[in-house]
Specification:
Pfam families: Fung_rhodopsin (PF20684). The chain is built from 7 helices and no strands. With about 250 residues, it is mostly helical.
């Protein structure tokens, strides 16, 4: 039975194609390149920030610690993705589903759940870190404090709701004998999580712009020249780049 499953594809190949379990076509190298570039930028940005805070400002705040934690989570997430890749980790990411055997799909679903949860936590930490930075910079302005706390409440609440929903929907229950590929589990997970991920994508877009607007709407009130206003705006806009680099995707295969 086990041998049969080892040679049973997780999906039927399209007409004219055959399953290839030994040497499947792979695009995993593309993601390896993306991860390498993004992690290099993450380490560069975080190191520059930490060195600046220690050597020049000689101070360290909650936003700095959150940034360090977010970076650690981003590195852990990247490591998980590398493990799930066909190459180098021997997983199934990067190859066609018809080139994946049932046992490999079963092994991947556990990692897929971890992927889904870890990326959400990482994304939330990055945004909370930016909001904590704004709280430190604009703490004396009451309406900015309110905007920051509202933003923190929103992103943390969504993260908690997403993680709980993911665990409830996509972890096999005691009566599901098929485990991680039980039809009832797959049906339940596919009925709930994709819509939640889609909602999360829109939520990310909204919160990204919300977080950016907090400092940007204050720039005209700083009394700076136009060129300096543009320079300050560009500095804050790097926050959007940080979010996109640290959290390049939100995927969940079931």
């Amino acid at each position: 039975m086990a041998d049969d499953l080892d040679h049973t594809p997780a999906a039927r190949p399209p007409p004219g194609r055959e399953s290839n379990f030994d040497n499947p076509e792979s695009r995993a190298y593309q993601l390896v390149i993306v991860i390498a570039i993004c992690l290099a930028l993450v380490v560069l940005f975080t190191s520059t920030r930490i060195c600046t805070r220690f050597r020049i400002n000689r101070s360290f705040g909650a936003d700095d610690w959150i940034t360090i934690i977010a970076t650690i989570f981003a590195i852990a997430y990247s490591g998980l993705i590398l493990h799930l890749l066909h190459e180098p980790g021997g997983g199934i990411l990067g190859i066609h589903l018809w080139d994946v055997s049932i046992p490999k799909l079963m092994a991947y679903t556990k990692g897929s759940l971890a992927d889904s949860i870890l990326i959400r936590i990482t994304n939330t930490l990055v945004k909370v870190g930016l909001l904590a930075l704004y709280l430190r910079l604009f703490n004396i302005i009451s309406h900015v404090r309110t905007m920051v706390w509202v933003g923190m409440f929103a992103v943390i609440s969504y993260c908690i709701a997403f993680v709980i929903t993911d665990l409830v929907a996509c972890v096999p229950r005691s009566d599901e004998a098929g485990g991680w590929v039980d039809p009832k589990l797959l049906a339940r997970c596919n009925a709930i999580v994709p819509d939640f991920i889609t909602a999360g994508a829109w939520f990310n877009v909204f919160t990204d712009f919300y977080i950016l607007m907090i400092p940007l709407h204050m720039i005209p009130k700083l009394g700076l020249s136009r060129n300096r206003q543009i320079g300050v705006a560009l500095i804050f806009l790097t926050g959007l780049l940080q979010v996109q680099i640290l959290t390049p995707g939100d995927d969940h295969l079931t």
